[in-house]
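Marked as duplicate of an earlier ticket. Keeping the data here for the record.
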Amino acid sequence: MALKPEDDSGIAKSLRDVGPYLGLGLQLAVTIVAFVLIGSWLDKKFSQNYIFTLIAGLFGIGIALYNLIRTVTYLEKRSKLKNEKK
């Protein structure tokens, strides 16, 4: 029983509207954690005291926020275009 695109029942419409946003939090967290782990690895490799972890963590936060803003902006534009076509 697949949902048809023209099916505008309550739950189907809600899932279609919210679906693109569901992965944003996970994407944000994974990006930050990945950069922190890379920084931690660099600290161990070069015998530093958390400097690479801090730098990589801040860089990861910046990259994650950039991707979040870019994705939300794209989804808003797509939503506006979809609403204008109706």
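See parent ticket for discussion. The CA atoms of residues 31 and 63 lie 8 Å apart.
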